[in-house]
Design a protein that fits this description.
Elements: H1 3-12, H2 16-19, H3 24-74, H4 80-114, E1 122-125, E2 128-135, E3 139-143, E4 149-153, H5 154-157, E5 162-164, E6 172-180, H6 185-200, E7 211-218, E8 222-230, H7 238-259, H8 285-293
Antiparallel strand pairs: 1-2, 1-5, 2-3, 3-4, 6-8, 7-8
Helix pairs in contact: 6-7
């Protein structure tokens, strides 16, 4: 195996490029991901085959009716009166089932031509994230994060913008946090340097050139700082995404503690305009003690 092929192979496994070896955990994760992709592909092919078979039966039925009418006309079995009667019945059927035929046609266009997702893809629709569970000609079944099945008509989906995480390239990440405005500039620069150094040392997780920027000033007592970086994966595997983000957040917390970075609330002025009168017959302890001594 050539060196470039070996480098590409090592980059597939998590942590292999840095440690120059493939660990058991990274190999296990790669096998599990390959198994999930294979299962999703099998489900997608099965659903596509089922949809194609249903479409094939529909086309055979329509073609059979057309061929029967043509043969009746050619053999002169059907008279003009019968043809007119058949045409009027066909127009009645078209009036009754016209909307259904339109729905089926639009669903076929959406499913086989637009084809925005496959089984197993993680999608975002109306701000909600779903995983495609099953596809048919008229409907698509999605799974929510709590395994609730959501059924959408394909005609409804064709009118909505659909985000597909599986087909997306490497996706970005953003972490925002606040520090006090009185924090020394040297500490802020050192904090940025350590965060960027941590990200660049995790080449198997993050892309190069992360950004740590001062985003805005809030109420003149705190600074909002943002960390912008890019995963080396998309967000199809949401668990892996949050795991990497959590590791980065934990490291940032450790950096804040080591540099003694703090955030303090603004001082609040409290003005007391009046005090209620206190009516009490209790004698103060100091006064009672002075009487006893006298």
């Amino acid at each position: 195996m050539r060196e470039d092929e070996a480098s590409r192979t090592m980059s597939i496994f998590e942590g292999a490029s840095e440690k120059r070896r493939i660990s058991k955990s990274s190999l296990k994760n790669w096998v599990l991901n390959a198994y999930r992709d294979r299962g999703a592909l099998a489900l997608m092919l099965n659903d596509t085959k089922t949809a194609v078979n249903k479409l094939h039966h529909m086309i055979n039925f329509i073609a059979g009716i057309i061929i029967a009418v043509i043969w009746l006309v050619i053999l002169e079995i059907a008279s003009s009166r019968i043809i007119v009667l058949f045409s009027s019945q066909l127009a009645l059927v078209a009036f009754i089932f016209g909307n259904t035929c339109r729905t089926i046609f639009e669903s076929i266009i959406f499913l086989f031509i637009i084809h925005p997702f496959d089984v197993g893809d993680r999608c975002e629709i109306d701000g909600l994230k779903f995983v495609v569970e099953e596809m048919s000609i008229l409907t698509t079944v999605f799974l929510r994060f709590d395994n609730l099945k959501m059924i959408f008509l394909n005609t409804v989906l064709s009118t909505k913008p659909i985000g597909n995480f599986y087909r997306s390239p490497d996706m970005g990440e953003a972490i925002d946090f606040y520090i006090h405005i009185a924090t020394p500039v040297e500490k802020v620069a050192l904090m940025k340097q350590r965060i960027i150094s941590y990200i660049e040392n995790r080449k198997e997780h993050w892309c190069t050139a992360p950004m740590v920027i001062l985003k805005e000033l809030d109420e003149l007592n705190r600074m909002k700082i943002a960390v912008w970086l890019t995963h080396k994966i998309n967000h199809q595997n949401m668990g892996q995404r949050w795991e990497r983000r959590a590791r980065l957040a934990e490291e940032m917390v450790n950096i804040f503690k080591e540099l003694d970075l703090q955030y303090r609330l603004r001082p609040i002025d409290i003005n007391v305009c009046s005090m209620p009168l206190v009516n009490s017959s209790r004698i103060p302890s100091t006064l009672d003690y002075s009487r006893k001594s006298s």
